[in-house]
Amino acid sequence: MVAAVYAGALAAALFATGSASAQGYSLQTVGTFSPPTAHGKSSAVTYDQNLVPAGSRIRVHQRTEPNGVTTVELRVAGVKANHAFGVHIHQKPCGADPADAGKHYQNVPGTDTHHVNRDNEVWLDFKSGAAGTGHASATHSWAFRKGEASSVVIHNEPGTAGSRVACFTVRFAGAS
Questions:
Q1: pLDDT tens profile 42-64
Q2: Closest CA to 46 of 170, 169, 168, 171
Q3: The pTM of the whole model exceeds 0.90
Q4: Is residue 31 classed as helix, strand or coil in its secondary structure?
């Protein structure tokens, strides 16, 4: 019984850990991609297995300082080698349809070039290496609004024009 409780607690810690204190907030969560048609609901969904094969892994780490400065770090493994990906934080959780994640999260909402850029959004574009691994980080002087940043979407190309190839639901911490 004790072993089962310990194993369950360890599994929960591996999949989502977060802590808040007077020093700020930290969240780390990991997932393994599966197709939206797979049995059981996964927080990591792949829509294009040529670019993000089932079994690829993702880790997202958010750190928010007491002054609101927020850093988001991304690490992936098992994706298509030597490919340039676009990655953004989106407003809604992932779903069976790539559009379910909604629009890009923006610090100041808007649709013109003053709003759609890496200073007002979290862009984590990266190029995978020969082993299919990649990483990126972004730091901003602002914190997420509570409940308005809910997923990491991987696009088939950097920038804003690429189609959505995978999605990872993350409960980003926001300002109160």
A1: 899 999 999 999 999 999 999 99
A2: 168
A3: no
A4: strand
Q: What is the pLDDT of residues 100-132, one digit of tens each?
A: 999 999 999 988 878 888 999 999 999 999 999
- Kindly tell me the burial class for residue 57, based on how many C-beta atoms sit within 10 Å of its own C-beta (0-12, 13-18, 19 or more): middle
3-state DSSP assignment of residue 156: coil
Q: How far apart are CA 85 and CA 124, in angstroms?
A: 9
User: What are the C-alpha distances in Å from 130 to residues 51, 76, 80, 84, 127?
Assistant: 13, 13, 9, 12, 10
Instruction: Give the SS3 label for residue 113.
Output: coil
Task: Please check whether residue 141 is in contact with residue 131, taking contact to mean a CB–CB distance below 8 angstroms.
Answer: no
Q: What are phi and psi of 14, to 5 degrees?
A: -70, -30
In single-letter form, the type of residue at position 81 comes to A
What's the chain's length in residues?
176
11 pLDDT more than 50 = no
